[in-house]
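User: Let's play a game. I give you a shape written as tokens, and you guess the letters that built it. Ready? Here's round one.
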């Protein structure tokens, strides 16, 4: 974020657009246990009890159906029930686990729709809803998913409850590509949303009454949209963040500092160490989100269909590990805090990196191994992606400046590998003759024991 102001009750982070940008100011607020934001009355903490009451009504209708669900003899169950004054859609993915577990992690989502809604947006929502349900079937941590539509004059029109086996399951669910696609267009469907996380320490079976089920709130997230964009976001923690979801640091009632790793998977452990160290030094909880892996799953390597800034906002990041090119694309929105300095002599104490051309070692004496760029003329070039500075633009500029030739004219063929790690693997396997690798990634790969000799 470009600027931050601190108040005695909560922390406010103003994320402003670049000068002259028509984008609205976006604000993220960390609320204390009973705080209400006057401009956003849906943040009143009393709504937690009201929402739990609605969840109990929904849960009881679900419990009333359980004998019929059990009677089907199937582990999965899908039905839509329209009673006029309410609409219920219970989906059970793992009936036996539902009946055998004695505690659950529950996410309650409450949303208020825009009126009217564009028909194209509705079609997108329903198509993604169908796709999301297909993905949910495959996630072993998701036990059940129940949708409920209340009367139009009630507080909140739509809500869903997702029943999981634990908090880690929520992280896996949130990394689902279809889930993120749905979230990315939710601002066109909802005016505002309220999302609760609960511990539910009770079994679920036909003898249970919803009124007796204890819901222990962990945190609530509030999001308000204006002009079909995220305008305001707040979060309230009731309990310390769960320790099993890449979260470290001393126990605190504050919302964790959230870091995002936009770089290759091999850099993730390094970023994890830094994040852990910051949490220990500051004595605050921290989280690290593997953005690059999520985006890979989400867009099948059509990477960063959104800008870094969009991803920072969508995932609620306070800090991001990004490469130089992505920073230069977004520099008006971001500030550099720190850059790594590699220990190797060639870096000379500078925060720089190199584009290293690699080939496979053909023999121990390396007599048949290419030693110059000229030796690679007419070979097969492996490129991680066309937007990569180290993997594509550096070699393209070098060939143009020194050989007066383009990549397509110099190499017989260019094959897209999707990542530096994949480029290295394809060079080793002989699928491509050469590739150009970010030196920091190459050195990290070389430190992996099984790779060091290759």
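Assistant: Ready! My guess for every position:
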């Amino acid at each position: 974020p470009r600027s931050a102001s601190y108040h005695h009750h909560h922390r406010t982070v103003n994320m402003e657009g670049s000068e002259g940008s028509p984008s609205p100011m976006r604000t993220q607020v960390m609320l204390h246990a009973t705080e209400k934001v006057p401009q956003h009355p849906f943040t009143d903490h009393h709504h937690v009890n009201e929402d739990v009451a609605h969840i109990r009504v929904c849960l009881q209708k679900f419990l009333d159906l359980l004998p019929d669900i059990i009677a089907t003899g199937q582990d999965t169950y899908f039905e839509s029930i329209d009673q006029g004054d309410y609409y219920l859609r219970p989906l059970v993915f793992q009936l036996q686990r539902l009946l055998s577990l004695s505690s659950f992690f529950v996410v309650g989502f409450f949303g208020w729709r825009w009126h009217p809604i564009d028909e194209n947006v509705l079609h997108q929502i329903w198509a993604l809803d169908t796709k999301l349900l297909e993905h949910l079937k495959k996630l072993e941590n998701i036990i059940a998913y129940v949708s409920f539509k209340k009367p139009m004059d009630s507080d909140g029109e739509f809500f869903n409850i997702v029943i999981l086996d634990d908090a880690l399951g929520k992280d896996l669910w949130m990394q689902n590509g279809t889930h993120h696609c749905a979230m990315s267009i939710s601002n066109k469907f909802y005016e505002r949303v309220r999302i609760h996380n609960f511990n539910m320490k009770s079994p679920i079976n036909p003898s249970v009454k919803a009124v007796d089920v204890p819901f222990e709130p962990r945190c609530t997230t509030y999001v308000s949209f204006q002009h079909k964009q995220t305008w305001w976001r707040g979060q309230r923690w009731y309990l310390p963040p769960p320790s099993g979801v890449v979260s470290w640091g001393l126990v605190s009632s504050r919302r964790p500092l959230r870091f995002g790793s936009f770089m290759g998977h091999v850099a993730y452990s390094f970023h994890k160490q830094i994040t852990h160290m910051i949490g220990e030094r500051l004595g605050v909880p921290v989280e690290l989100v593997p953005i690059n892996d999520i985006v890979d799953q989400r867009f099948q390597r059509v990477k960063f269909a959104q800008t870094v800034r969009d991803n920072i906002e969508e995932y609620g990041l306070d800090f991001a590990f990004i490469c130089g090119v992505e920073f230069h694309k977004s520099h008006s929105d971001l500030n550099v805090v720190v850059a790594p300095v590699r220990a190797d002599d060639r870096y000379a104490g500078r925060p720089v990196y190199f584009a290293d051309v690699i080939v496979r070692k053909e023999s121990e004496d390396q007599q048949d191994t290419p030693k110059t760029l000229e030796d690679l003329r007419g070979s097969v070039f492996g490129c991680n992606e066309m937007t990569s500075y180290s993997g594509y633009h550096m070699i393209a500029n070098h060939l143009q400046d020194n050989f007066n030739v383009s990549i397509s004219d110099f190499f017989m063929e260019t094959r897209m590998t999707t990542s530096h790690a994949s480029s290295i693997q394809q060079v080793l396997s002989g699928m491509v003759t050469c590739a150009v690798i970010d030196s920091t990634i190459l050195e990290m790969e070389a430190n992996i024991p099984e790779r060091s000799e290759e």
